[in-house]
Design goal:
Layout (H helix, E strand, L loop, with lengths): L11 H12 L11 H17 L3 E4 L4 E4 L6 E4 L2 E4 L6 H11 L6 E4 L10 H14 L4 E3 L7 H4 L4 H8 L2 H11 L5 E4 L3 E4 L11 H4 L12 H7 L1 E2 L6 E3 L6 E3 L1 H10 L4 E4 L8 E4 L4 E4 L13 E6 L4 E7 L9 H9 L4 E2 L20 H10 L2 E7 L9 E6 L3
Parallel strand pairs: 1-7, 4-5, 5-6, 8-12, 9-11, 12-14
Antiparallel strand pairs: 2-3, 4-15, 7-8, 10-11, 13-14, 15-16, 16-17, 18-19
Length: about 400
């Protein structure tokens, strides 16, 4: 019988053993967890989800500097935001290896943990185990695939039935129905799986969504999990998915202004570079499953947010990626380009020869990616908004 604490939660030693076995599951082999262990993970996680708000309010972390007997060491503690995983368990393990394991690293996942990949059970069990073990370090939002109507069709139901039984799938469904649907980081960055809704005017509406709940076919909750940005749309448009809407840059600008926000971070769509900006960098799509489903030639991405709400991207390449071309080398150089939440970096002027303000550091990065250049020497001082040194060469054909 599984050990439980007086509060009815799983014993930390039991959780640590489950996590250890799951982390050992490399090489694509199935991890052997018992039905009872998985059931308890779901029940415990469900309790925690309901004890926390539907709109998670997450403080941006602090910078910790250790004054030691040897030279000073500085560590940047930041939140890591991950997009869709879709049962690609080996890539999830690589993501933790790259970004760090809880509790040393904090994570917010944007949904879509199951379906399509070969190991949805291992994927969701590891995430639930980390959530139960470190409830204030790991946060999971609901995606449109954390819905019985969807994962009944796209693979998770079949995996549960093949490896265990339908009863266990129903227990997962009860757990998924309690997941929070949005998170607010530092009062400025709003995160959800899908996007905006015509019904969404303020954040209090998200807080008022009742749980547990199925995902309806329309309305606010449906849109938060299903809607997509579309640069060709003004206002709201019909979605090719047959569910929810698309929204234009004007809807993003309007919503951010009305709610005093700087950035929307969402998942839901595969993007080639793992992340993709929209509406003049007011919205970013994050997708964390590289070589998605074995059919897309995409990389995965992880978004880090530090205590100043400065964001940076980490790139997760496919396991079978070939040797980097000149363009991929460039993108590797540029993947750490940072952007400041709330404002564009100020325009830059050359100290000599004297010119009018010309471009921002972000525009430099975009330009170099566009023309296929390799950075040979890219040293930037943003004191007084000046670029002091910039040298680059065209990539070899």
């Amino acid at each position: 019988m599984m050990m439980m604490t007086m509060e009815g939660m799983m014993d930390k030693g039991v959780l640590d053993d489950i996590i250890r076995r799951l982390l050992d599951g490399k090489g694509g082999k199935q991890v052997q967890l018992s039905e009872g262990e998985i059931r308890q993970l779901c029940v415990n996680a469900r309790q925690i989800f309901l004890s926390q708000p539907n709109l998670l309010e997450i403080r941006a972390p602090i910078r910790i500097c250790g004054q030691l007997s040897h030279p000073v060491s500085c560590f940047i503690w930041s939140w890591q935001l991950a997009g869709d995983i879709h049962g690609q368990y080996l890539d999830l393990l690589r993501l933790f290896e790259y970004g760090g394991y809880p509790p040393a690293a904090n994570y917010l996942f944007l949904g879509d943990y199951v379906d399509r990949g070969k190991q949805s059970l291992e994927t969701i069990c590891l995430l639930l185990a980390f959530k139960v073990r470190y409830p204030d370090k790991v946060f999971l939002l609901r995606g449109n695939h954390e819905d019985a109507k969807i994962n009944r069709i796209y693979g998770f139901y079949d995996e549960c039935k093949r490896r265990f039984n339908v009863r266990l799938w129903k227990i997962f469904t009860d757990c998924f129905n309690c997941l929070p649907v949005a998170a607010l980081i530092g009062d400025k960055i709003l995160c959800m799986h899908g996007g905006l809704s015509p019904e969404l005017q303020n954040l209090d509406q998200i807080k008022e969504i009742q749980r547990p709940t199925d995902v309806p076919d329309s309305g606010l909750l449906c849109d938060l999990l299903w809607s997509d940005p579309d640069s060709h749309v003004q206002g709201w448009g019909d979605s090719d998915r047959g569910v929810s809407f698309t929204f234009g840059p004007d809807r993003v600008d309007d919503f951010l202004a009305k709610n005093n926000l700087d950035l929307i971070c969402r998942g839901h769509q595969v993007v080639e570079d793992g992340y993709e900006f929209f509406a003049k960098r007011s919205l970013v799509t994050i997708f964390s499953a590289p070589n998605y489903g074995g059919e897309f030639d995409n990389v995965g991405a992880l978004l880090s947010v530090d205590e100043s709400l400065v964001c940076s991207f980490e790139i997760l390449k496919p396991l079978d990626a070939k040797a980097s071309t000149s363009r991929m080398k460039l993108k590797k150089e540029m993947q750490q380009v940072r952007f400041m939440s709330g404002s564009e970096l100020s325009t830059s002027t050359q100290p000599w020869p004297k010119r009018s303000p010309t471009f921002t550091t972000l525009e430099v990065a975009d330009s170099m990616i566009t023309v296929d250049v390799i950075v040979c020497n890219f040293w930037v001082s943003i004191e007084n908004g000046c670029i002091y040194h910039l040298c680059f060469l065209h990539a070899a054909s």
